[in-house]
Amino acid sequence: MEMPAPNAAIIARRDAIAARLSDAVADKAAVITDPAETLAYECDALSAYRCAPLAVVLPSTTEEVSAVLRICNESGVPVVPRGAGTSLAGGSMPTADAVVIGLSRMTQVLETSTEDRLIRVQTGRTNLSVTGAVEGQGFFYAPDPSSQLACAIGGNIAMNSGGAHCLKYGVTTNNLLGATVVLMDGSIVELGGPMGEGADLDLLGVICGSEGQLGIVTEATLRILPSPEGARPVLIAFDSAETAGACVAAIIRSGILPVAIEYMDRPCIAATEDFCGAGYPDCEALLIVEVEGSEPEIDEQLRLIREIAQGFDPLEFRESGSAEESRRIWLGRKSAFGAMGVISDYMCLDGTIPVSQLPHVLNRIGELTAQAGLRVANVFHAGDGNMHPLILYDANAPGDLERCEDLGAEILRLCVEVGGCLTGEHGVGVEKRELMTDQYAPADLEAQMRVKDVFDPQWLLNPAKVFPLAESASRREARGQDAA
Amino acid sequence: MRPDSEDDLSAMIRAASGPVSITGGATRLRPGEGQGARIDMRGLSGITLYEPEALTLVVRAGTLLTDLQAALAAENQMLAFEPDPREGSTIGGVAAANASGPRRVSAGACRDAMLGIRMVTGEGEIIRNGGRVMKNVTGYDLVKLAAGSRGTLGAITELALKTAPVPPVRATLQLSGLDDAGAIAAMTTALTSPFDVTGAGRLTDGTVILRLEGLAGSVEYRAERLRAALGGRAGIDTAEGDEDFAALRDDAALGEGALWRIVLRPSQAGAVLAQLPGAHVVDWGGALIRAAAPAGWRPDLPPGARAVCERGAPVTLPETDPMVARLNAGIRAGFDPRGVLQGAA
Ligand SMILES: Cc1cc2nc3c(=O)[nH]c(=O)nc-3n(C[C@H](O)[C@H](O)[C@H](O)COP(=O)(O)OP(=O)(O)OC[C@H]3O[C@@H](n4cnc5c(N)ncnc54)[C@H](O)[C@@H]3O)c2cc1C
Predict the structure, then answer these.
(1) Any chain B CB within 8 A of the CB of A196?
(2) What part of A 239-298 touches B (C-beta under 8 Å)?
(3) ipTM, 2 decimals?
(4) Would the pTM of this model clear 0.95, i.e. be above it?
(5) How far apart are CA A136 and CA A129, in angstroms?
(6) How does pLDDT run across A239-279, given as a tens digit for each residue?
(7) Are A57 and A21 in contact (CB under 8 A)?
């Protein structure tokens, strides 16, 4: 992965910068420069790419974040915001001249109001623990990325994360009402408001999904929802990908809105069966469809889904009859990534396509993969067209990673070609930066970069992410001159 | 001026030497908007793609809202955010105003249904953002910025929208005789219950209405349970129509004078309701108050609440924080460096 050369002048001033940063935080141990300790911050979950940062700061309050940013801004030092480091796109990977600001100490719940159906938290708090804070009162926070045990709300906001349940409840941006944001110059702004409506333009909407490039979100007001009375999945097995795809379309077309429709293909099923023995049927493709509500409601929805599925001659229609059966239906799906990791190295793609293109895209992925001499397993959120083809390769075989990356890029371009996009939930980061020109024309990217100019005129926040290096070069270089 | 293509529109904006206003049906202009030369977007109309099985639709901005709704109805689908229909209103105007009706409490606002846009900026540049798929995190989300931007960032020429199935059955629970606190409490009970309430408001005559939608057996079950949760006092109406919620959403009952739109937390609604000088409706379970008021009247707002006078003298409360105002101005300058787009919807 090509990264811009770090600014040597900044690296030479490391000790002076670290000393100033220590003055900005109450706890001196919150500034870390010891290479043994910064090791943990060298990369995120895209661990193929790593780099030691200049320093790491772990502030405890919005004011400390503000003070740290003010210093970095004055000194022209790049900053990389970091939640839990579970980004799969290299979004929180540092550069050698950058200070990582980690939010891991900022985990407080600041307010809950079930009456107003909201919770306000510091953004270092993990996704799952937000639900944990309100489930006793019969509420939950809807966006549920698979990484929810570890990932932080700040990272979710920066990446606009989604989860299995977003078919019904939407992604982060649909559940975010307000945010306290510290801009690169240290100023603190409150965005959003009741019902998410802020003053004038929807700045909250553009902060969400901006991959830590516009400001550091230190507090967030999130919409919470009353928990449904219950939920129940069914597993439907098919002898072909096409039929499974057609069944997805028919379910959505019928007007039933399941909370999740997940898809797995044969290679993926085989791997998970070896891994955790969930007892999935022998088939080419399977769907897991989950519906919610009270018992009579669930029965009614499942009856309709059964009727629809029957039109596609499924090999099996397995309806859960108990909590244990529900767990087993989800077991293979939830273990899919771990299971694939046991049999092979793999690269996880994250393209999104219009659901109507599913059969075509699956076929084409098969062809491209065969041409490349690699193997692929498919597991994805079928209801919203967010695909996660896993390309299997051997990290120790020379040239395999490069072939895998080329194939990955080709598959993502295919997604764009059929009307989809490069990333549905993981973000662009450093990983898909150079592919942005496949989805967006120069004017489209220029419009996005002008927004960055407004929030962060020196281009110091999370540099070299999202925008192709060539397209952002002049802006980043202007910064380099200031710092030297 | 009435362009009939994006290129045409781009040329017009480039050629503009003074202020222009982008208008659809000009049905949602606020006081002070619509200055300068009008560019009428209604020449750019028509649905360009509709995939009911993917719940997505792409439509040109000048398309009449009623035409769009008819096309959706033919497939038994709808716009979940339930924009209020105004004679001549276009979907571009709805998007530029982020117009959202009662179902916003459950299904989100117009901005939440907007998946992608094409737009001509104040420089005449044609740009695209987002796409036509439900999930997309490729680059910055300028779609949200455009939603509610009231024609000040550019002219939206085409938008991709998420559609929703029309629920087969609907029931409305009605409660009358409640005071302000009782009304808010009833709506809160409904919206904090697990019964999937898709609308909760109070009409000008004081009737609280709560809406349940979905499959027949399920609606019946939830209506009974919700009624029990409300102490058994609610009447249940399972009539086909949705007149109650149309009345909640549309302005008719609020007369002709100044009209305030106040957005706040439901827990704060009581304090504002107590001040209101005249006819008003409550929507979004207490988070939205729309109130008629004499000229010169202003609400005394609780912390965090916002109010706009939508008809009458232009007032927005509270004043925007200077730093946030600077960001807004900076973004406008980025999209419209010459400052020709005066705003309209
Ligand atoms: C096993 C696994 C499963 C996953 N499943 C999903 C999934 O189902 N859906 C999904 O959407 N994603 C998924 N992800 C990706 C990842 O978990 C999400 O992108 C998550 O939101 C990242 O959160 P984080 O706190 O770890 O952020 P980090 O990795 O620390 O940072 C991610 C980005 O956010 C920025 N950032 C972090 N905190 C802040 C802040 N406070 N203010 C401003 N910017 C900030 C960073 O600079 C970076 O650009 C998965 C990852 C893994 C490893």
Answers:
(1) yes
(2) 249-250, 252-257, 293-294, 296-297
(3) 0.96
(4) yes
(5) 12
(6) 998 899 999 989 999 989 899 999 999 999 999 999 999 99
(7) yes
